[in-house]
Write a structure and sequence with these properties.
Number of strands: 0
Structural class: mainly alpha
Shape: globular
Radius of gyration: 18 Å
Number of helices: 8
Order of helices and strands: HHHHHHHH
């Protein structure tokens, strides 16, 4: 007897959840478009309203699609980071970075479990490439970072780079999401270091970040098998 057969009505609940998932995804896309448009237009109020809605909507979509709890947790920790980073002070920045770091731990745990279930391990060549990029970037940016942020940012960067590398376990979508997450946070770091910025730098940070979280979500959902345990 299958697990579904053992729980009468589970198919109906899954079907209802799927019907709700589409509108939630549409809401996420609408809010993302509004946020990006607001950043381009210089409408700070739009950004302040839209940004905190993004990850709860994406997490809700993932949950309705039967995502692993670790994916939902990673997205909600991303929401915590989003909220704290709206405040313009060092303490809020560190707390927000810590929340994102916890999200990366969730992703890494999820990717490790995926590897343990027979998926191909993340290629060592890719890991070596990420390591070279990280070292070069840190060497270049180190002198321009505030002294009190150098160590925290270095530790966070190591964790983020590991996540980006291991994301490939869940396929090309997740791999692209990991790479874009790394790029998004690198853009934030260059702003902290006061390097020259592209026009509308916050737009590019949010564009790469939103795409990163969405691709990580779709990558995991694409590869995740519903027969896995709910706590995976």
């Amino acid at each position: 007897m299958t697990a579904t057969a053992a729980r009468p009505g589970s198919t109906g609940r899954a079907g209802r959840a799927e019907r709700f998932a589409r509108p939630v995804l549409l809401a996420f896309l609408v809010v993302a478009a509004a946020d990006l448009a607001g950043l381009l237009a210089g409408a700070e109020t739009v950004h302040l309203v839209a940004k905190p809605l993004l990850m709860p909507l994406l997490a809700g979509y993932a949950a309705l699609r039967g995502a692993p709890r670790l994916l939902v947790a990673a997205l909600l920790f991303g929401w915590g980071g989003d909220v704290f980073l709206l405040a313009d002070n060092d303490l809020a920045f560190l707390v927000g970075m810590g929340s994102f770091a916890l999200g990366h731990v969730c992703y890494l745990t999820l990717f490790g479990r995926g590897e343990g279930r027979g998926r191909a391990p993340a290629p060592l060549v890719t890991g070596a490439g990420y390591a070279v990029v990280l070292v070069v970037f840190l060497v270049l940016i180190w002198p321009d970072l505030p002294a009190d942020l150098r160590i925290p940012l270095t530790g966070y960067s190591l964790l983020l780079t590991a996540m980006a590398w291991r994301a490939g376990v869940f396929g090309p979508y997740a791999a692209a999401g990991g790479a874009l997450f790394l790029l998004s946070d690198a853009l934030i770091a260059t702003g902290i270091a006061e390097w020259p910025q592209a026009p509308a730098p916050d737009f590019w940070v949010m564009l790469t970040y939103i795409a990163a979280q969405a691709l990580l979500t779709f990558g995991v959902l694409t590869k995740h098998k519903t027969k896995h345990t709910p706590g995976e």
